[in-house]
Amino acid sequence: LFVGIDAYPGGVAPRPLKGAVSDVAMIKRALAQTRDLRLDRLLLNRSAGGDCRAANAVSTTLINGCATRDAILAALDDRIARAAAGDHVLFYFAGHGALTSTSGPDTQAGQSSMLVAVDSLGSDCTDGILDVELRDRLAAATARGVSVVTIFDACNSGTATRDVRPDSATRGLGAWRRPAAPRPAAAAPAVLPVARDVAYLVHMAAAGDDAIAVELAFPDDRGGTRVHGVFSRALDVALRRGARRSYRAIMADVR
To answer: Which residues make beta-bridge pairs with 204?
Structure first.
């Protein structure tokens, strides 16, 4: 599942981003070329072609207006449901992240990190995708023997989920002061113990909670520039340095 959002609506949202969709294209190309994955074609030819959603048997891509809260969660649920024991699910997100005021035993100091969907900060202040919501889904996946890798290029993405310069933009909202709207409690999944060599969780993040992620203009292969998240650009380089490397080695290169 690949999600990238540049075109956030105005109003309460910050200025739009410029590199999140480019990041999706870059990471998709890196994975398709180095892992021989037959991903959906959206953005692989450097153009969205007017579409904001595509899917095939291997992947789903949501960008800009198609990347609503419900669509992202539905696509993640679908990918997990399609997976069998021994399979891997990867969820890549580039866009805004935030901290939100919450309450409950699962929060740290009354706050949770969240991914900001395209409709998360509209006039009705709908909440984003909370870290605890993702946790429950990923726990249910690993309980079935499905390994999950999450890669988030967003501010405050250390558990969820760009140093500020005049030519940069940050991918976060800071602390989102309004409490998340209450939602009906979902039935707890039946989580069975799974051997660590059967299924695992890996999380790669551009920034820890209460920290920022930055996007900048980088030279491209056509003599111009293209905006990317600093983290995603480094990840692209690391992924292309050789297949079958450990996650630890990849993240050491990213740092």
So the answer is: 151
